[in-house]
Automatic annotation (TrEMBL):
Species classification: Eukaryota, Metazoa, Ecdysozoa, Arthropoda, Crustacea
GO cellular component, one term: extracellular space
Regions of compositional bias (Polar residues) in chain numbering: 103-113
Organism: Meganyctiphanes norvegica (Northern krill)
Protein name in UniProt: Cuticle protein
Region feature Disordered, mapped onto this chain: 1-45, 74-130
InterPro entries in the record: Insect_cuticle, Insect_Cuticle_Struc_Prot
């Protein structure tokens, strides 16, 4: 037996807002749902000085529909003296690799001491005895 714990008509409404002068974080979100109908919006302060707002709704199986708007005019910092060019400094997150010099190892061979007397094997062998 399979039990269905989903509410027959889900309903909720929630909202939150963050405005932090120290970090510059400024955003909010609100949403409400009544059964298959969901609608809401959220906005965020963009780094260029504008505010982006997304208003959305979902109607049952109709899919997610969103409208995005912007308030204000984008502000950009002045071009640096000398203009823009390729970055020649370190790349953030890239490992700093130090390549050392490599030299092949020198091989040393030791000649065995040949003053030791060794018996020379005989070249004649007899058949095994039965």
């Amino acid at each position: 037996e399979v039990l269905d714990y989903a509410p027959t008509n889900p309903e909720y409404r929630h909202a939150y807002e963050v405005a932090d002068d120290e970090t510059g974080a400024d955003f909010h979100q609100e949403e409400e749902r009544d059964g298959d109908q969901t609608q809401g919006s959220y906005s965020v302060a963009l780094p260029d000085g504008r505010t982006q707002t997304v208003t959305y709704y979902v109607n049952g199986d109709g899919g997610f529909v969103a409208e995005v708007t912007y308030e204000g005019e984008a502000q950009y910092p002045p071009e640096p003296e000398g203009g823009y060019g390729p970055w020649t400094g370190p790349i953030a997150g890239a490992p700093h690799i130090v390549r050392g010099e490599y030299s092949t190892p020198t091989r040393t061979y030791i000649t065995p001491d040949s003053s030791e007397e060794v018996e020379t094997p005989r070249g004649l062998y007899s058949a095994p005895r039965a």
